[in-house]
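Sequence only, no structure available. Ideas?
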Amino acid sequence: MAESMADAAGREAAAAVGVGLKAELSLFDSITIVAGSMIGSAIFIVSADIARHVGSPAALLAVWIAAGLMTIAGALAYGELAAMMPQAGGQYVYLREAYGGMVAFLFGWTLLLVIQTGTIAAVAVAFARFGAVLWPALGGPMWIGWQGVGLDPERAGAIAVIALLTLVNLRGLNMGRAVQNFFTSAKVLSLAMIILLGCILAPNHRAVEINFIHGFFGAGAWSGGFLAAFGAAMVGSLFAADAWATVTFTAAEIRDPRRDLPRALLFGTGLVILLYVLTNVAYLCQLPALVTPGAVAAMGADALRRHVFELGIAGAEHDRVAAAAMQIVWGGAGGVITAVLVMVSGFGCANGLILTGARVLYAMAHDGVFFAAAGRLNRARVPAAALKLQAVWAALLTLSGTYSELLDYVIFAQLIFYVITVGAVFVMRVRRPVAPRPYRAWGYPWLPAAYIAAALALMADLLVVKPRYTWGGLLIVVSGIPVYAYLHRRALRSGAQERASPRTAE
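Reply:
I predicted one. Tokens follow.
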């Protein structure tokens, strides 16, 4: 009975969530949130690790294509839930309505603890790290700290980025979306430039010969433990393609969410995946996939280009694949140009994550399972306290020096929430068969089921290949269970006291 009362209270709260939020986001704005939150620094880096895992150009592209197909299949399924329940908090709301308050809280808890804030921290640090190419002072020594925890110029730069973008979003939705639209457009054009240069205007014919004519499938790369290695390699591509669901958090601020949310999910993810695959083709048109000592006959006398070419994608220094590819095109200037591109990309990505993440805390506060202040809006009608709390925790993660490891831990947890959210499409078809569905998941039930099966297979592979990170991700999730139990009991007691207070007065 208590649980049903709590569910009813949650539904009433859900109806109220978004009342004060301004519905100003267009379809274009929504697409830029999807694409801008997805494109961060990973596309410029993770191909090196993928190449080391799978060992051939064909497998490198296959990893990105597989991750892309999974992402688009997930987005198509989310579209049904988004059109059916266009409320602030998005995925949090879908989980609450399908499975109850605890599952939804665990998602919000993990999102706050590391998924959203850890990604914000990582992207902000990447911005500062590449900024050191332009401003060497950002690469200076630690100011104060111990055992890797502390403050240095790089982390100070990252905190400044987080603070600046939080201030921008505190001034209202129009400011946040203007920044998002500009920087998303800029980084889409940046990736388009890499593709155009790498594939059409200035391809490296020696790399094309090595990757696409003589060694496309690699030597023995598809035997033995290839499937396990393929699954491990997909962690990087899935992380690069992550954060597409954050647009659902802003559902109450979209002008026509029932129509535009499914479209934004499809168009945004489709655009990014196309860019990612073509960007990797561009890398392969400039660099061999693997280290190739001595295979530089056609590289001329330029020592930098010869060195970068020999290292290939798998051996790119500090895994900076995009910088290596652009150095083949422009020589020494390529590193500077790539640094600017990564900074533009990271800035826009951090803005999208900051804008959207606070809306989940806002929805949780309206359900009575988070600080009440997070559910209040400022004069600009944005959740100010939620934005500030998110910024403070993200800044602390930059100081910890462990945020990148936490992101590895959370990949498995993120897959769990993706699986159960896609599963919510099946649950809601049974629980609410006649509910209005302006959009129905394309390919239902086969495509959502295929997504779940693929994600479960990948999770099983990660349990074997990367047990440290998978079990760590589970611990982050389950750590929210006692917190929810306490907050849930407190909410029930508070509700009981409110119902009893009139009788006490009499």
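The radius of gyration is 23 Å.
Hope that gets you unstuck.
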